[in-house]
Amino acid sequence: MDTNKLMALLPDIVAFVTVVDSGSFTAASQRLGVTPSGVSRQISRLEAALNADLLERTTRKQVTTEMGKVVYEFSQKIIDSADDIVHVTSQELGEVTGELRIAAPKAFSRRILQPLMLEFLAKYPKAKLRLMVSDEFVDPFGITLTLCLN
Asked: Where is the HTH lysR-type domain (predicted)?
């Protein structure tokens, strides 16, 4: 199946999984924000494309056929993968990475910076912190620092 045909089937696959999960065309249509007849058309289109009956329809309920169960499992994996993509990319957008280099006096580092650094690293585990502790004057231009407190 070519990519264009496959892409056209993705909304139908979502509709199919929603029908199976919710148990009816009406419940699926409410979750998807379309009419029950629209959901029915999507399922019919998917069945035609796959040349297989996925649901046995009665007036009261839909029963998944054996082939429908197989298609459901694969379809669920597709939806889970798409959800993972969205989850990963949304995490990456807000992620703090890189290295923060700080030079500070001993007492200030112990009382103020150390608790803040632990909190920072817990919140941003991919970030790196380097703390240079010294009561001596530190030349901020002599070494690469993000923050220098003398």
From this structure: 1-65
Pair 74, 119 in one domain: no
Q: How many structural domains does the chain have?
A: 2
If asked whether residues 121 and 59 sit together in one domain, one would say no
Tell me how far apart the terminal alpha carbons of the chain are, to the nearest angstrom.
67
Per-residue tens of pLDDT for the chain, all 150 residues: 677 787 888 899 999 999 999 999 999 999 999 999 999 999 999 999 999 999 998 777 789 999 999 999 999 988 888 887 777 666 666 677 788 888 888 887 787 778 788 888 888 888 888 888 888 877 767 777 676 776
With a threshold of 0.70, does the pTM exceed it?
no
